[in-house]
Amino acid sequence: MRALLSILAILAAATPERRFEAASIRPHPLxxxxxxxxxxxxxxxxxxxxxxxxILYAFDLRDYQLSGSFDAASYDIVARAEGDAxxxxxxxxxxxxxxxxxxxxxxxxxxxxxxPVYELxxxxxGPKLKKSEGPGDCSCESGPKNAAGIN
Length: 151
Fold this sequence. Notes:
Blueprint: H1 2-14, E1 20-27, E2 36-40, E3 43-50, H2 51-58, E4 74-81, H3 89-104
Antiparallel strand pairs: 1-4, 2-3, 3-4
């Protein structure tokens, strides 16, 4: 087992880090109405994306896992991966980390932090839920909806 871990460590160190061959970063011209990050083939494209959103994407974080103050400016990015092999989503995230460090000067500091949470518990008189007697009247409908939100 130890030999396998050593081999994996050597392979990881010997594997060159994938990077973006070219990246265009431009300030988004209008106030951002929403953001998008998409990948297609060798290309990663972002539209109206803030640095905070780029960090969340690059490190696969949720917003409560990131603290600090960030500039509200948003950016449009078009980047192309090196080589001909299609990058995986994980590789795109790693390449975005490198881009953030090189172009935005990102430095990382990790720490454990306690945050408040809620615990759902049964009240002292027990649950007040009753088992459904049948299909009943359900006001919600499932299934695909069109752009107007109608089934």
